[in-house]
Model the fold of this input.
Amino acid sequence: MTHTLPLITLCALACTSAGLAAAADDLTVVSNVTTDGKAAGTQTQYISSDHIRSSHASGTEIIINLKTGVMTNINGSKKTYYDVTKQDLENMQAKMNEKMNDPKMKQAMAAMQGMSSSMAASAEVKKTGVTRKVGGFACEEWSITMSAMMTMTECVTNDIKYPVQSWTALMDFNESMRKSMSGFGPAAKSGADLAEKMKSIHGFPVATSTVIDAGVSKMTNTSEVTEVRHTPIPESTWQVPAGFTRVDNPMAKAFTPR
Done:
């Protein structure tokens, strides 16, 4: 994806590559990114047998340790980072369940459930019939409509292969995260429903365009692959840069009573 995504959305969209074939070596993918038609730098995805890192020119990065399930979120502009563990998600789910005893919360969740069901029902994933070449790779275009406000177009190829162990570990990680977030109510269900529909997309996205139209404002983000490398990735890639300060997980703080 073009940017670091909220956790639930990230796990749903990971299924974009649901039918990928796998290879044995590390994979590095570099893409050019634009925002509202203006160049916004590059994004680099590093994929090995047990780690994934997505680095954006804005300084926003995420590292996923596929062995431990820990997600490290890095803010380059502030030189800070925080981790999200499976235990964090389980703790937040427990706190969410406690909050559900509040009548006002039950009412709000009921309203959200209706909205979520409507969004899930309206979500649509289909081929556009367009084929083209991006970064030298032949790709097939898909349209993903998530709601009236958000649409995405992806061009996917079967010519880029995931490392075998990484693909297996990623699927296990996604399933684990899905279970951990099952208590997050409508948002989790909406994400799971979208992920199920996106399983029909087979391939690696070499071009992505996301349009968010809120009526009063509209934003378009695009990315296109420019380089693919099948070379060993240094272990230092999976480390937080020196001098960065660890901060509290803001998701956990949001569930802490004041």
